[in-house]
Amino acid sequence: MSIKVLVTLGPASLSKDIVKNLAARGVDLFRINLSHTKLSDLENILKQLKSWTEVPICLDSEGAQIRNQDMASERIHFKAGSTVKIHHQQVVGDAENISFTPESVSREFNVGDIIRVDFNAVSLKVIEDANDYLIATVENGGMVGSNKAADLNRDINLEAVTHKDKLGFAMGLKNGVKNFSLSFTNSADDVKKIREIIGSETNLISKIESIKGVINLGEILSVVDQILIDRGDLSRQVPIEKIPFLQRRIISYAKSKDVPVFVATNLLESMVKDRSPTRAEVNDVASTLLMGAQGLVLAAETAIGAHPL
Prior knowledge:
By secondary structure, this protein is α/β, with parallel strands linked by helices. Helices cover 29% and strands 26% of the residues. The strands form 3 sheets. An 8-stranded parallel beta barrel has the order 1-2-3-13-14-15-16-17, surrounded by 4 helices.
């Protein structure tokens, strides 16, 4: 079985020399994450990549994900017990102000809701609705940078495909992209919505990173080319100690349906800073492959890490 390696490009790796060196090391797909890429930069990035390498490109959607918007710096400290305004319009965030995407999603927040930002690095509890903004208290203090994933302590309806996804995927198709991934795939209907945009001749990877996606896995497997288990976002909804067992079950089920599986998150996380992986990471990668995964995804390790090569 040929193992596919999908590599995320970002500030640490989006240069001609590094892309060429990565390609020479056996990358099968280069991933561009629309959650961290401005539409104004996307077409130029795609054209550059096509001039640097013949390795195919995969565009990864934002999907049904709440994120905070731009912050004044990458290390804004939120002090426990302080109050913060959650603006319905985009603002540059600081220790007293923050805003979220998708646009106006904060209008769905209610008094009493808890918003956890960047894997619970900071948690905010809404205490008042002031019409133009919400007021929240900082329950857990910590550092937050720009564009970090956030989640709510209850379900709200989010569109499977954002306006930015639609524009980005159309730009990808225009520039010859044939591989796409749908973040937070919750149902077969989500897949059908994305197929209306990218057509039936493209390769589609559905990312399983929510309880709904796990529950509806059977119907999702019947309409996609591959799936990707994002262990990071899945661990927001599943206790972390259950993730290895859930990963094994998902891979086994997908194999029974002849659908290849990619696995992502923390494969070589220590290498964001270090030159070598830990023994635990080596064991995790080997175990994941022995379970039957046919693809591995590097994210922070190659997008923002010190040693992408």
